[in-house]
Write a structure and sequence with these properties.
Belongs to the nucleobase:cation symporter-2 (NCS2) (TC 2.A.40) family. With 592 residues, this protein is mainly alpha-helical. It is built from 25 helices and four strands. The two termini are 49 Å apart.
């Protein structure tokens, strides 16, 4: 993008409805201090929303007490999110969208890593240091065994996620996602996404049970900031070249509620630690609510940590794991398509053309492969929370979001930063996970606004999908030996299927919605697709050219073969030309 100052006219900043316009549209380049401030804000938003996923991962791979691993997974997550954000904003969908860790992959992770052969049995560790699973001995000779256990689990997750992410790459590269969307509607998406959050309630309980008082305080602070005080504007002084030093205001509470959660609850936890209200015995359940419980990890962490593929060993692949991850990939893809259209609407851009959407999905697949390869244990997806921040701050400059990606890359390689995040007391981390998963559930259920809830057809499909998504995994966990075909790979495949709530609810909702008779209006398909079309009467500040790949799009248009590639800019032009020919042909027939 050219480093030019955005043009400001007398009507700039207002629409016909007297609503505020974007202060910095996509093509604008704010001053360096302004860019850094807004980029830091988006980075903090992404980091605070992303930390809950690696917290779940370290618990599932049996490394919850390993401070070094916790810190490295935090750093790797931040690093991967920065890399993928930079790629998505530069050559992907070309919209200001932050890429963060995806909750969609948690459900298959739980299914993969909690089957009988993979259980940690950490709760069975005896006080004398012995355990039937870890073979712990007082002299610490089990250290290598424990490291091998979590590395083996992480390698399985890495390999399965990398293979499954190839499906997302294929969907974006071939444009097949458009065909798939013809059969997917709100009654498939609502139970699928809702189950992503519902399936991790036990993880929230495990972290919160360390100290329910601190957990409640943290959650209350976050809820008050995000809901009760969402419209409260805090005044402060600001300076820019146009207005100089002037008074302005910002809805800061709704922008960074997780920061307020961490700071206030951490201060309370520090007071309880210093006054001796929290036990100093590491064996006590409330010990991990102390602020110094993980202090050693900060001191031992390296100042610089560079994630790289193969750091924890060679990734392995399991059939069940891949299938479960594919279901998560499709759910993440559908959610991202909605985010693209929402972001374009907020940024006063035209509806994203098919080549931009395809390229965005392609880049998300590549991003999940990158995230898996460096050992994060999860994929990446578009963050709708950060799109909401654009609507509040009126800052949609692509340069700001590219800078945010660079900032996250820098913070990701600072080992001490990741160790500090990992040292947050467990009940506070539990509150962050709880608030994050609650929002995921709400996002899933919000898709019900498009369907006719008075229809007995829709109510039966929704209720059955949700109930079976809870019932079948519960029964499988109570009866882990129920599936016995004689072939271990097939046993594992069915076990992962039947213990993944998201997969069961989504598959059942998809099947019933497409087989039970119903009109498109009743199913909500028509209203839902209209919402994705981004129809708006707002004055646009961008054009279709903004979706082009920088520097190479004009060159691509000169080569005919690129018109056949669904994720490149010439493809959309080829489609429009074909439609134009059909319309002209029909018009000529009518005239004759």
């Amino acid at each position: 993008m050219p480093a030019t100052k955005p043009e400001v006219s007398e009507e700039y900043g207002k629409t016909e409805g007297n609503e505020e316009r974007l202060l910095y549209p996509i093509r604008s380049v704010p001053s360096i201090p302004t860019t850094l401030i807004f980029a830091l804000q988006q980075s903090v938003m992404c980091i605070t929303c992303s930390v809950s996923v690696p917290l779940i991962v370290v618990k599932l791979i049996c490394a919850v007490d390993n401070q070094e691993v916790r810190a490295e997974l935090f750093s790797a997550t931040i690093f991967a999110c920065g890399v993928v954000t930079l790629l998505q904003c530069s050559v992907g969908v070309r919209l200001p969208i932050i890429q963060g860790s995806s909750f969609s992959f948690i459900a298959p992770l739980i299914a993969m890593l909690t089957i009988e052969r993979a259980k940690c049995d950490a709760e069975n560790i005896l006080k004398d240091g012995s355990s039937a699973y870890f073979n712990i001995t007082p002299n610490g000779t089990d250290a290598m065994d424990r490291e091998a256990i979590w590395q083996e689990k992480l390698n399985e997750v890495q390999g399965s996620l990398m293979v499954a992410s190839l499906v997302q790459v294929i969907l974006g590269g071939t444009g097949a996602i458009g065909v798939l969307m013809n059969y997917i509607g709100p009654l498939t998406i609502a139970p699928t996404v809702a189950m992503i959050g519902l399936s991790v309630f036990d993880v929230c309980a495990d972290y919160g049970s360390v100290h329910w008082g601190i957990w409640t305080l943290s959650l209350a602070v976050g809820f008050i900031c995000a809901v009760y005080m969402r419209n409260v504007k805090v005044p402060f002084l600001w300076w820019n070249r146009e207005s100089g030093c002037h008074k302005t205001s910002c809805q800061i509470f709704v922008l960074i509620p997780a920061i307020f959660m961490i700071v206030i609850a951490w201060i309370v936890s520090l007071i309880l630690t210093l006054t001796g209200a929290l036990p100093d015995d590491p064996g006590h359940p409330q010990y991990k609510a102390r602020t110094d419980a993980y202090e050693g990890g900060i001191h031992t962490a390296k100042w610089f940590f560079v994630p790289y593929p193969g750091k924890y060993g060679l990734p392995t692949v399991t059939v069940g794991g891949v299938i479960g991850m594919i279901a998560a990939t499709i759910a993440s893809t559908i959610e991202s398509i909605g985010d693209y259209h929402a972001c374009a609407s907020v940024c006063e851009m035209p509806t994203p053309p098919s080549h931009a959407v395809n390229r965005g999905i392609l880049m998300e697949g590549i991003g999940s492969i990158i995230a898996a390869s460096v050992g994060t244990g999860h994929g990446t997806t578009s963050y709708s929370q950060c799109i909401g921040v654009i609507g509040i701050t009126k800052v949609g400059s692509l340069r700001v979001f590219q800078t945010a990606g660079i900032l996250m890359i820098v913070l990701g390689v600072i080992g001490k930063f990741g160790a500090t995040l990992a040292a947050i007391p467990d009940p506070i981390q539990g509150a962050i996970i709880t608030l994050g998963t609650a929002m995921v559930i709400s996002v899933g259920l919000s898709n019900l606004e498009f369907i006719d809830m008075r229809s007995s057809r829709n109510m039966a499909i929704l209720g059955t999908s949700l109930m079976c998504g809870l019932l079948v995994p519960y029964w499988m966990k109570k009866n882990p030996t129920a599936v016995r075909t004689g072939v271990n790979e097939i046993d594992q495949l069915f076990t992962v299927f039947l213990t993944t709530p998201m997969f069961i609810s989504g598959l059942l909702g998809f099947f019933l919605d497409n087989t039970v008779p119903g009109t498109v209006e009743e199913r909500g398909i028509k209203r839902w697709k209209e919402s994705l079309s981004g129809k708006s009467t707002a004055i646009l500040q961008g054009s279709m050219k903004d979706y082009d790949i920088p520097f190479v799009s004009d060159w691509m248009r000169k080569i005919k073969c690129f018109k056949l590639v669904p994720c490149l800019p010439p493809y959309q032009e080829r489609t429009l030309q074909a439609c134009g020919k059909v319309l002209r042909r029909n018009k000529n027939k009518r005239n004759k």
